[in-house]
Here is the input.
Amino acid sequence: MTVRHIALLAYPAMTALDLIGPHHILSMLPNVRVHLVAKTLEPITSDLGLVITPSTTFDDCPQQLEVLFTPGGTRGTLAAMEDEATLAFMRSRGQQARWVTSVCTGSLILGAAGLLQGRRATSHWVARDLLSRFGATPVDQRVVQDGNVLTGAGVTAGLDFALTLVATIAGTEHARKVQLVAEYDPAPPFDAGSPARAGQATTDAMREMLAPFLALATQAAQRWTPYAVSVTHGHHGSSSN
Here is the structure.
């Protein structure tokens, strides 16, 4: 059977869990080869100090991808969304990939690469509304599909995103098996995983903490100018989860 190539973007100061969750789930797809792609093969340090070694570079990454994926972060994402080599790679592979995907603020990188124009998409709740500056329609949902673009909300939504993608590629039963072997049966000790559930005081405190990032992300989005990029809509249809 034909090997399906999955490219996961890695960049300095990204949020590691945005990457690790989807990496774990997507690696369980049949007949896949997963590539951790970066500018160079030098080890990359995440925003909280986890060191990850890329497996291939932008130049050597396969041209034809089943999945192109980018994680998010804060300051690292701001740098990536204005780095021309990163954006050129994302545009190049994104125009040919069967699936163009992200988790958390990784959707800002998709947007900056011109891959979200005319699409419905999501992001981390603090940055979601910025997607409109990239020609996208922000959607307040954990996983959003629009054609062959699939985006997940903040950090832990990467597991839901990845299971959704596995089900679409390999079928619901395969995805159920992956969920079971990962024992993904969430029962968090607190019901504070979204602004609606966390309450005003907790949400306000986190908005204040994230305000400097949001201000810089807003400035970066305001500097963005559209690219003439065409993402293949494929035959996946348009829906959201």
Observations:
- The first strand starts at residue 4 and ends at 9.
- Residues 233-241 have pLDDT under 50 and may be disordered.
- Helices lie at 16-26, 75-80, 84-94, 106-112, 157-170, 172-181, 195-198, 200-223.
- Residues 70 and 180 are 25 Å apart (CA to CA).
